[in-house]
Amino acid sequence: MSSHGETRVLVTGGAGFLGSHLCERLIAAGASVICADNFFTGARRNVEALRDDGRFELLDHDVTSPLDVEVDQIFNLACPASPIHYQRDPVRTIKTSVHGAINMLDLAKGHDATILQASTSEVYGDPTVHPQDESYWGNVNPIGPRACYDEGKRCAETLFFDYRRQHGLRIKVARIFNTYGPRMNPDDGRVVSNFIVQALLGRATACRRGRSVTSTT
User: Fold this and answer.
1) Which one of 21, 30, 60, 87 is separated from 79 by 20 to 30 angstroms, measured CA to CA?
2) Is pTM, for the whole model, over 0.70?
3) Mean per-residue pLDDT, 107-117
4) Pairs from 67-71 (Cβ < 8 Å, separation ≥ 24)
5) Quick check: helix, strand or coil at residue 85?
6) C-alpha distances in angstroms, 118 versus 5, 32, 67, 176?
7) What gap in Å lies between CA 29 and CA 7, rounded to an integer?
8) Which residues are known catalytic residues?
């Protein structure tokens, strides 16, 4: 803990959609928060309201590079989650998931910190079982155009559990499904956000013979 007795928390990807809300909740709960983001999909405006809070620190940092800060907890949210964004640079995407996981796990190990990995429903790939639960291992194409994200997150989970088995690290893994809300990128590209954006713009979407048709109402 810090000299003032506060829990010190690192949130990677903290200027993103989910990360910025998490930073706010942690600050409200009395924690001291370090927000690390390389702003590939995150934005400084998402955490602007926290900039003057003495318990908040913003770092321009890419998790593919090691980071050494004194922390009690780590929330590893760094990685673009939308196909539009993670397919833009697939090599960078998989490096973020894999190298980023290793760097954050090493940081947690070095400071005896608890660490949470923000995983994804995409670890199930194109599932043959519905609904999916943790006992289902998935159906993933390892060489397809989405594999940079799917396999990167699967590898990150493997690393987390191996660090727990090998080093006794205190880990948590959350497989997040579709999320939406304030600060989500309008060009996210996923179905729920598409419907919301189209509704806000006064457009209607209908599916005709397997094709999506957008019209202005």
Assistant:
1) 30
2) yes
3) 98
4) 67/10, 67/36, 67/103, 67/104, 67/107, 68/107, 68/110, 69/8, 69/10, 69/34, 69/107, 70/2, 70/8, 70/111, 71/8, 71/9, 71/10, 71/34, 71/107, 71/108, 71/111, 71/113
5) helix
6) 27, 20, 18, 7
7) 10
8) 149
Residue 83 near residue 189, CB atoms below 8 Å: yes
Would you mind telling me the total number of residues written for the chain in this entry? Answer: 217
Dist CA 150 CA 208 (whole Å): 30
210: region left, alpha or beta (phi > 0 left; psi from -120 to 50 alpha): left
Q: Which two tokens stand for residue 216?
A: 């202005």
Q: Is 136 within 8 Å of 128 (Cβ atoms)?
A: no
Pairwise CA distance, residues 20 & 81, whole Å: 15
Residue 132 in tokens: 């999916």
- Rounded to an integer, what distance in angstroms lies between the CA atom of residue 156 and that of residue 97? 6
pLDDT at 1: 59
C-alpha 173/C-alpha 179 separation (Å) is: 17
Could you count the other beta carbons within 10 Å of the beta carbon of residue 102? 17
What average pLDDT does the segment 39-47 reach? 96
